[in-house]
User: What shape does this take?
Amino acid sequence: MSDNPFNILGKESTPINQGEAVSNVDKNSELNEQIKSLINSADLFLFMKGTPDMPMCGFSANTIAMLNSVGKPYKTFNILEDMDIREGLKAYSNWPTYPQLYYKGELVGGNDIITEMFQSGQLQEVLK
Assistant: This one.
């Protein structure tokens, strides 16, 4: 393992980015509908700080590294660019922190849960 706590993969090479940042939200719809629409726009959806190409916190960078390592395409939304969604998602998911990963519309969890799942091989198994 690396001495860097955010280098969960334990190596210096970076897997190919499988993520696509989404920024278009229909502001004419109700907030929970906006959130639901984002989540349902991909099987694997991550609300994060920053984008897959430029994560803005270590936990988001860590989660991106794990998702890229799994090799499945995913979409992301930068919660730093939309305070309504940032705050509304906390109530929607009943989860207070970011990043938040959703798989097929269901909340998987945050960085700590994703890391545990990745290290045990459960994340890779679920996403097969």
